[in-house]
Amino acid sequence: MNRTRILTVTASAATCLGLAVAGAAPAAASSPVLTFKDSAGHVVAKAWYDDLTDNLCAVSYRDGKTITAQIGPSSGSGISRTVVHSGFGKPRSCTGNLSIPEDKSYWMYVKFASQPSKDTTFYT
User: Fold this and answer.
1) What is the pLDDT of residue 89?
2) Which of 6, 35, 45, 89 is the most exposed place for a label (fewest CB within 10 A)?
3) Spatial separation of the C-alpha atoms in residues 86 and 45, rounded to whole Å
4) What is the spatial distance between Cα 98 and Cα 106, in angstroms, rounded to a whole number?
């Protein structure tokens, strides 16, 4: 191989490597919302995680009907919390700032009254 060809191959390999490293961006954070509706299609309860403030919140719009929301790390190691709300005029229940590290995979599980539970995974 002559010297010109070696330099061309080396430059091409470095360019490809640079693109691969540049493409490895952090996971996109999200703020998932899980809602429950009655038979008429009205939202009767919801739970959400706010990535900006690191809060898990839940609200039941039906007095006496309880919503329970839980989050935890997909890895099994880290902050896990539960929040419960039963209506009765209280605007919502939230955990407060959980200070969860960025780019971590978390699950959220929500149960409302007798409706089937819902769950999702997301990145902080």
Assistant:
1) 86
2) 89
3) 10
4) 13
**Burial (CB count <10 Å: 0-12, 13-18, 19+), residue 111:** buried
Q: How far apart are CA 118 and CA 110, in angstroms?
A: 5
Average pLDDT over residues 12-26: 45
CB atoms within 10 A of CB 80: 13
2-16, 68-82, 107-121: segment of lowest average pLDDT: 2-16
Judge whether 70 and 49 are in contact, CB under 8 Å: no
Instruction: Specify if 90 maps to a domain.
Output: yes
Look up residue 110 and give its two tokens. 């929500």
Rounded to two decimals, the pTM is 0.75
Domain that holds residue 45: 33-123
Instruction: Kindly report the CATH number assigned to the domain that includes residue 45.
Output: 2.60.40.3080
